[in-house]
Amino acid sequence: MPIEDIRRRLGLRPVINVSGTMTGLGASIVVPDAVEAVAAILTEFVEMSDLQRRASAVIADLTGAEAGFVTASCSAAISLAVAACMTGPDLVAIERLPDTAGLRDEVVIQSGHMVSYGAPIEQAIRIAGAKVVPVGQATSAAAYQLAGALTENTAAAVYVVSHHVVGYAQIPLKIFAEVAHARNVPVIVDAASEYDLKGFLADGADLVLYSGHKFLGGPTSGVVAGSKARVRDVYLQNRGIGRGMKVGKEGIVGAVAALQAWKTRDHDGIRARERKALDCWVEALDGRPGIIAEIAPDPTKNPLDRLKVSVNPAEARVAAWDLADRLAAGDPPVVVRDHEVEHGYFFLDPCNLHPGEELVVAKRLAVELDQARKSNVMAATSFEERLRAREAAILKWPD
Ligand SMILES: *Cc1c(COP(=O)(O)O)cnc(C)c1O
């Protein structure tokens, strides 16, 4: 933690993030090279198209694609990539979006891929003016269903790689791309959170999209990679609907620095540090009544393990979600990964920790669990009540 913590100065809570890379918590820890680069560019002028050419070379080097550029976010990249597949390099059509008259404007996506990453992905597609055509059912999709959904009006096929998607019975990317390509339909892969920078292009993606501010540790940004012609068509959307999704010089320079740092990052060292944090938490939870702690691999095979903490309320005297809420309400606030907490477990994600914070997390866990065991009343808010409170809280901002 920096000596003078800006959060204290702004009256904000010094959150410890064990939930992963979350927009709601400020995404990730930006790597030192990117911090330096952002600070260095902020006071200078640059020719932005040259800066994006430089970004293209770096993205090409890391992904194996011909070209790339940096945009505002992966969500922006989805909208712009879809727009590009409809307009091509037609500057008039680009200025006319989201009016798609005369253009192919259908975008197919598997039902099980129609996720929310904080906003619905199908809206990111519709922003461009496209119509979303779901393929298959939430829990099953087949190649014949994809083939049957492709028409003369299909502009693109979107494929999502993420823990958010239904984790079984979806069409593998290779088959998805084969079917789409047989009809000359380009495949856009949303790989926002995936560490693999080459595999999706190798498996048939025409455009692959990443977040700059997730695993890469850049400032808020998105990365687009693909063939020169396609990337150019996406880039040209900055003259149209992309304007409102503008990335600044600091975002581009920061993302480029983060990409370069990724190449030389000590990945094994980081893995070992994350493992140390997991071991520390396993030890802190060992033997505690009603608590089972297991190391869980990442669902999309990113080289990252998390600790799954299952809570039996009868023994721990606290429900998993109440424990999560107490950790988040405490001092310092510890925010866990609780998107599946209705099943009675949450995860501790070690990938966004500052050195030493794992010890604070271990201590906070111990304090909350001791307190729950000592209490005469079991802390078990009904899950429905928690949901209602959370929904009501959405509308309370800015109060
Ligand atoms: C985070 C995420 C996004 C959005 O990325 P941003 O860069 O934050 O806009 C899109 N798709 C998936 C699968 C994500 O996990």
Structure report:
- The chain is of the alpha/beta class and 399 residues long.
- It folds into two domains: 6-23 and 267-394, Alpha-Beta Complex (Aspartate Aminotransferase, domain 1); 32-264, Type I PLP-dependent aspartate aminotransferase-like (Major domain) (Aspartate Aminotransferase, domain 2), CATH 3.40.640.
- 41% of the residues lie in helices and 15% in strands.
- The strands form three sheets. It has a seven-stranded mixed beta sheet with strand order 2-8-7-6-5-3-4, with helices on both faces.
- Helix 2 packs antiparallel against helix 11 and helix 12 runs parallel beside helix 15.
- The longest helix has 19 residues, at 267-285.
- Bound molecules: pyridoxal-5'-phosphate.
- Pyridoxal-5'-phosphate (PLP) binds next to helix 4.
Q: Characteristics of this structure?
A:
globular; 399 residues; binds pyridoxal-5'-phosphate; 15% strand; Aspartate Aminotransferase, domain 1; 12 strands; three-stranded antiparallel β-sheet; 2 domains; Aspartate Aminotransferase, domain 2; alpha/beta
